[in-house]
Amino acid sequence: MGFSFLLRSLFSSLIYIFVYTIKPQNKVSLFIHFRQNNYFILNRMIRKFISSALIVLCCIAFSANKAHSQTEPLEILFLGNSYTNYNHLPDIVSDLALNSGKEIYVESYAPGGQSLHDHASSFETYLRINQKKWDFIILQGTGRRIAYPESYSSDPSFEALTSLKQIIHENCVSTRILFFMPWADEDGMTWVANRTEDYFKMQVDIYLKTIEFSEALDLSISPVGWAWYRVLYEKELPLHYLHSDDWNHPNSKGSFLAACVIFSSIFIESTTNNPYYPSGLDHAEGDYLKTTASEIVLNDLELWKITPYIDSTFNDITTGISKPDHLNNLSLDQNYPNPFLNLTKIKYTIDEKDKVEISVYDQLGKKLAILVDEEKFPGSYEIEFNGNKLQSGIFFYSLKTNKKRIIKKMQKI
After folding, report:
1. CA nearest 89: which of 72, 73, 76?
2. 207, 398 contact by CB (below 8 A)
3. DSSP 355
4. Which of residues 56 and 278 earns the better pLDDT score?
5. Bridge-based pairing state of the strands 354-361 and 331-332
6. Rounded to two decimals, what is the model's pTM?
7. Distance CA 377, CA 27 (A)
8. Long-range contacts made by residues 244-249, C-beta under 8 angstroms, separation at least 24?
9. Cβ atoms < 10 Å from Cβ of 63
10. How far apart, in whole angstroms, are the C-alpha atoms of residue 183 and residue 258?
């Protein structure tokens, strides 16, 4: 409450007291008395008025400051489909927040079978987005459409994300968008004729495409699917451990793991010490899921483009969308040969003088080697990677500058 406001309030209080509390005949007497007694009585009365008014104003200021000091709840909207609705995922996020002393307001619009493309063209989705100035909007993708957009050209996810981002920021430029990385079907794409992608292959493809979309559209990622990947990799894919018996929707553990990832993505805070456990979940198992979710999010915030939430206006969103890789000079080529036995070559191009890092990671995101870590001038370069100490399997390599990061996968045989 500003000083000028206090002065105006004090002046108004004095006028009110003078006009409405002193009888007309007393006002005349007051002025006569004032002239006869050298201001003494009037000064005494004014001092009393000022004291009373200041007490009132201090009480008002204290109440206002107390009200403003209380943190307003974050307002969060989930846009998805039945993968969000299963086991009431948004409610689990609310329970985690409540048990960590945070207050959030959550709404969800997630009709069964609704894709991101459906949301982008839905009037109901438009109304939900424009219902209020949301702090966060969670956009849940579908694994098949994210991993293999060429197979779903009539239902394009990238174009849908572009449209949804535009709609969201036209309503409120400070709304933080979290792209919910989906999980792969338990049997991958093997249920489709002539498709051979198993769960692990499909999840890696989802991961790579999610990173690509995030870079192109400057979206933060809530890496739900990658947390699933680590759990199922470490557990060696036990049947229906996170999936339900339909092989694609989440069971209660799957939804809980997803909720822990989303919580950590929003608050940049571990769920490890959070006292909340869903009914029926073994606490030791719950602790394992909490720890995994927290590590996946918090150990790689830069990759997921997660930064602390600040309720402020973003820059003009029309300039916030980056060009796709093929329109930029900055590029990272596929390694050759691929698959490789021990040695493989990696070519890359830098479009301006910049600090460059090229690194190799395992399937869990652990950095295994740094191949380049220095400032480079514009131009094309080639390096050789010796993987003779690595076991056979899938690995990732990334090109990172101060402005962008590109990730590709390679296979050692």
Report:
1. 76
2. no
3. E
4. 278
5. unpaired
6. 0.67
7. 85
8. 244/86, 247/185, 247/186, 247/187, 247/191, 248/143, 248/185, 248/186, 249/82, 249/83, 249/86
9. 10
10. 10
Residue 56's pLDDT is: 47
**Residue 162 corresponds to which amino acid?**
T
Residue indicated by tokens 């969103």: 317
The DSSP secondary-structure symbol of 198 reads -
Q: How many other C-beta atoms lie within 10 A of the C-beta of residue 132?
A: 14
C-beta atoms surrounding 92 within 10 Å: 21
> Most distant CA pair in the chain: distance in Å?
109
Tokens of 383: 């390096």
**Two structure tokens written together for 312:** 């402020």
What is the average per-residue pLDDT within 361-384?
Answer: 88
Dihedral pair phi/psi, residue 240, rounded to 5°: 55, 40
Tens digits of residue pLDDT in 263-305: 999 999 999 999 999 999 999 999 999 999 999 999 999 899 9
Q: Are 141 and 182 in contact (CB under 8 A)?
A: yes
In sequence order, the 6+-apart residues with CB closer than 8 A to the CB of 214 are 179, 220, 221, 304, 305
What pLDDT, on the 0 to 100 scale, is given for residue 407?
83
Element (H, E) at 369: strand 367-376
Which SS3 state, helix, strand or coil, does residue 272 take? coil
Nearest to 155 by CA among 81, 75, 240: 81
Binned at pLDDT 50, 70 and 90, residue 54 comes out as: low
The percentage of the chain sitting over the pLDDT mark of 70, rounded to a whole number, equals: 78
For helices 224-235 and 199-217, give the axis angle rounded to 10 degrees.
160
- Exposed e or buried b per residue across 259-288, where buried means at least 16 C-beta atoms within 10 angstroms of its C-beta: bbbbbbbbbebbbeebebbbeeeeeeebbb
> Minimal CA–CA distance to 259: which of 277, 238, 243?
277
Write down the mean pLDDT value for the chain: 83
Q: Would you call 75 helix, strand, or coil by DSSP?
A: strand
Q: What angle do CA 36, 40, 42 make, to 5 degrees?
A: 90
Query: 163 exposed, middle or buried (CB, 10 Å; 0-12, 13-18, 19+)?
Result: middle
- Three-class SS of residue 280? coil
Element (DSSP H or E) covering residue 136: strand 136-140
